[in-house]
Specification:
Layout: E1 3-6, E2 17-19, E3 23-26, E4 33-45, E5 48-58, E6 64-65, E7 69-77, E8 83-90, H1 94-102, H2 106-114, E9 118-119, E10 125-126, H3 158-209
Parallel strand pairs: 2-8
Antiparallel strand pairs: 1-3, 3-6, 4-5, 4-7, 7-8, 9-10
Length: 210
């Protein structure tokens, strides 16, 4: 698994987290993960603020990101193909806070703010006469991404498993065969012993009769 952590406090940052300090990547010794990170910033466009991708590149354990921007972390388990993403905002821009927390488009957020909505410190969009957008009360609870390899396990070797099954089956068959063989040897030994005893007894009886 992978944990984004605040560079100053060391606290784990969950999906849609906001930090002014920046964050670092902690892979927790995961070995089978491919990590890519994309950074976006806001630029003034003809229709208002727009996202602009500054980079999209692989990341490694211990990398730190402190410049303002929206960071999207994509983690892929190269064995299972499972992919997980987290979005983290570094900075203090209220519009970007709301963009990360609410999931609304920039244009939608700007329109709502122009209509009287207020962006709270945590990025929640407070709209008059309605529940805050981005709060737990207005959005369904999302399961937290932990980047597990659910995420970090080597693929099962099916051929080895089949060999184990075949070996067990052969052993189960061999046991009664060996037991039958031992019983047969014992039976033959007893018959030979009895036969010899009889041969020794017959001459003795004939001698007594004479």
């Amino acid at each position: 698994m992978i944990f984004p952590r605040d560079v100053k406090t060391g606290a784990e940052l969950t999906n849609e987290a906001i930090t002014e300090n920046g964050f670092m990547l902690d892979l927790a010794k995961s070995r089978y993960l491919n990590i890519d990170i994309k950074k976006e910033i806001l630029l003034e466009g003809s229709n208002g603020l727009v996202e602009d991708v500054r980079f999209n590149k692989p990341a490694q354990d211990g990398n730190q990101y402190t410049d303002e921007g929206i960071y999207t972390i994509t983690v892929t388990n190269r064995y299972t193909g499972q992919q997980t993403t987290k979005m983290i905002y570094v900075g203090t821009n209220d519009i970007l806070k709301a963009y990360v927390v609410t999931g609304l488009s920039l244009q939608d957020i700007q329109n709502r703010v122009a209509a009287g909505a207020v962006i709270a410190e945590d990025g929640t969009l407070i709209v008059p006469n309605s529940a805050p957008i981005g709060s737990e009360s207005s959005a369904p609870e999302q399961p937290e991404n932990t980047f597990q390899d659910d995420v970090d396990t080597e693929p099962t070797n099916t051929s080895d498993a089949q060999n184990d099954i075949d070996t067990t089956r052969d052993a189960d068959i061999a046991v009664p065969i060996i037991a039958a063989g031992v019983a047969l040897v014992l039976l033959l030994t007893i018959l030979v012993f009895v036969s010899r005893r009889k041969k020794q007894t017959l001459p003795e009886e004939e001698g007594e009769k004479r």
